[in-house]
Specification:
By secondary structure, the protein is an alpha/beta fold. The protein has 16 helices and 19 strands. Helices cover 37% and strands 23% of the residues. The strands form 5 sheets. An 8-stranded mixed sheet has the order 12-11-8-13-16-17-18-19, sandwiched between helices. It has a 5-stranded parallel sheet with strand order 2-1-3-4-5, with helices on both faces. A two-stranded antiparallel ribbon has the order 6-7. The longest helix has 24 residues. It starts with a helix and ends with a helix. The chain binds ligand PMT. The site of ligand PMT has 29 residues, from helix 12, helix 14 and strand 16.
């Protein structure tokens, strides 16, 4: 399933002839780097590998030569390698320089502009973006010196992929693990969609809301937030500045996304309205309660009567109110339907005056609420696109691609 979906996603952007120079510095995570080469090549990238002396202690250059299909660059002053492709030429050849793993020592070297081996010299000589996937012991990641080096590199525009959190080769647990090769290759591929929303602000709502009855009880629904978080993540990958207004969830905020946490539909409404004015695109993926209890009991409701009636009142429709604003952003709704998806979704598209709606069938196992995968039918006035079952992040990337295209189309029509 995963391979099929990866292929669908890769078709969005032609990665053929895109050139990655993969730098390997000397850490135990280097044993995973041949898999990064393999996965990047599967996506159509051309990959060349440059290794530090320490990296060669962990994995042999021969392994990388076998998986990349190219000779591996290890020495700055190697006359035969220089004759084949000199270090300046190699620095110019790369569209992206990816260092994975990037050790604490290597980050320090990059931050201070030290050029005492081939890879560090390439990093100084290249004008292409540099992306690093750090890998080190959690204390080293947390050390003040490393934090300062990371800040310097980020300020210079170096992109950090991870590190991840979890068990480490040294036996400790915490942040500092190199991201998995599949994630690194997906994130590198996603960078090539980067310009799609560059310079735009996108607001996304996600998750369920909780409508309190008393201090301990609430009415809610089964939304986990996964779909909305994936949309926020994909929008950030596409270069947008993203504000995610989220109902309660255990999910971590995606990298580079500003999260505003809320509980109730009223809080979500207020958080959206306070900030949406600056956004060019609004995407409502949250499952906002349509009704909330009319009364809130300050004390826990006691079990006494056999029957109990709770009066509910309609909440404000955030999506419809955003779409109705003067200078409304490009407004994308979601529709959760159990039947007749197209009719109900198109009805919401029209009644709420939306630019686009992404409808999903809910109440079936394996997609919709709570699951890791989903399928979407995307409708807009005069068009539609089916996005078949896929992991939510893959689906979100495709959705963001459609949103970006339609947004540009609407914008250029308005300006002509
Ligand atoms: O979070 P997950 O577990 O990953 O599940 C994803 C999802 C199924 C929740 C998601 O894909 C989805 O369908 N979200 C919208 C759910 C929903 O509330 O659908 P609706 O058809 O009832 O609402 C239509 C639209 O109006 C939605 O964009 C909703 O955000 C918006 N709305 C609804 C009510 C309200 N008071 N304010 C709103 O903005």
């Amino acid at each position: 399933m995963r391979a099929r979906v990866d292929r669908i996603y890769c078709n969005m952007t032609d990665l053929t002839n895109k050139r990655i120079l993969l730098g390997i510095s000397g850490g135990i995570a280097a044993y995973k780097s041949p898999d990064i080469v393999r996965r990047l090549r599967e996506r159509g990238f051309e990959v060349r590998v440059a290794m530090t002396r320490a990296a060669c202690e962990f994995v042999t250059p021969l392994t990388f030569q076998a998986v990349s299909g190219k000779s591996v660059h290890t020495h700055l002053l190697d006359a035969s390698a220089e004759a084949a492709m000199g270090h300046i030429e190699l620095a110019r050849w790369a569209d992206t320089v990816l260092i994975a793993p990037a050790t604490a020592d290597y980050l320090a070297k990059l931050a201070h502009g030290i050029a005492d081996d081939l890879l560090s010299t390439l990093c100084l000589a290249t004008t292409s973006p540099i992306v690093v996937a750090p890998a080190m012991n959690r204390q080293m990641w947390d050390a003040e010196a490393t934090r300062e080096n990371v800040a310097v590199l980020k300020a210079r525009g170096v992109t950090f992929l991870g590190p991840g959190d979890g068990s480490q080769a040294c036996g400790e647990v915490g942040p500092g693990r190199m991201l998995e090769p599949a994630d690194i290759s997906a994130l590198i591929a996603a960078r090539y969609n980067c310009d799609k929303l560059r310079g735009l602000k996108v607001m996304v709502t996600a998750g369920a809301t909780r409508e309190a009855l008393d201090p301990v009880r609430f009415i809610s629904n089964q939304s986990s937030g996964k779909m909305g978080y994936a949309v926020a993540n994909a929008a950030a990958e596409a270069g947008a500045r993203v504000i995610l207004v989220s109902g309660p969830t255990s999910l971590e905020a995606p990298l580079g996304v500003d999260r505003v946490c809320v509980n109730s539909a009223q809080e979500m409404f207020a958080a959206v309205m306070q900030r949406v004015g600056e956004s060019q695109i609004f995407i409502g993926a949250a499952a906002v309660s349509d009704y909330a209890p009319k009364e809130y009991a300050e004390q826990k409701l006691k079990k006494s009567k056999d029957r109990m009636t709770i009066e509910l009142v309609k909440t404000r429709d955030i999506l419809a109110e955003v779409a109705a604003m003067d200078h409304a952003p490009f407004t994308v709704g979601f529709a959760a339907e159990t039947d007749d998806v197209e009719t109900y979704a198109r009805d919401k598209l029209r009644k709420k005056s939306l630019d686009m709606i992404a409808a999903n069938l809910v109440g079936v196992p394996g997609s919709g609420f709570g699951s890791d995968e989903n399928a979407l039918s995307v409708y807009w006035s005069g068009g539609a696109e089916e996005l078949e079952l896929a992991p939510k992040l893959h689906l979100a990337r495709r959705l963001i691609g459609i949103v970006a295209d339609r947004y540009r189309e609407k914008h250029s029509a308005q300006n002509s």
